[in-house]
């Protein structure tokens, strides 16, 4: 089984991935952030490093999916390949932070890789308001995230909401997180797990 968690920066994807992996015995597949050689450069100069960063994420996520498929593991994925292509890359292009020729090259590579993979059996979308996202980003205190622009987060959030409204590629569970603290509150985590169990039971 392949379950994936989608959501904007600061929505709690990594935390929930860890908790669900432990609860269900799934193999976690994390987004590479702390050892990412481009991410600090990107937040310092988005226009210069946007293409490099997006290609890095595309490559890592594709490799992880192929490896997991070979090993026949039940996986829980922190962010999907589709978010890179349908949200982050077009957002950078629309904001003038990725050149058109780079964007078109990126999409060509994505379409090729996308032809080799299947969408997740269940996509969990962590829906959050911009104030909640900013609060969570500040709380975790990553130095390179201090340079994140408010308009960048806001634009991403709008694109996420539009993408989820049109998502038809598989089973979808939307969890509104503004009033949830599944990271420290066991009752809130229990609510999330109950929702996921109900969706998983419907897969079989």
What does this structure look like?
This protein is of the alpha/beta class and 204 residues long. The protein has one domain: P-loop containing nucleotide triphosphate hydrolases (Rossmann fold, 3-Layer(aba) Sandwich), CATH 3.40.50. It is 57% helix and 12% strand. The protein contains eight helices and five strands; from the N terminus they run βαβααβααβααβα. The chain has helices at residues 13-24, 39-44, 46-71, 81-94, 100-114, 130-140, 150-166, 186-201, and strands spanning 2-7, 27-29, 75-78, 122-127, 171-176. It has a five-stranded parallel beta sheet, with helices on both faces. Helix 3 (46-71) runs parallel beside helix 5. The longest helix has 26 residues, at 46-71. The protein is globular and about 45 Å long. The model has no long low-confidence stretch (mean pLDDT 89).
Low-confidence stretches: none
Strand neighbour order, sheet with most strands: 2-3-1-4-5
Which CATH first-tier class would you pick?
A: Alpha Beta
Task: Let me know the largest β-sheet.
Answer: 5 strands, parallel
Short description:
The protein is about 55% helix and about 10% strand. With about 200 residues, it is an alpha/beta fold.
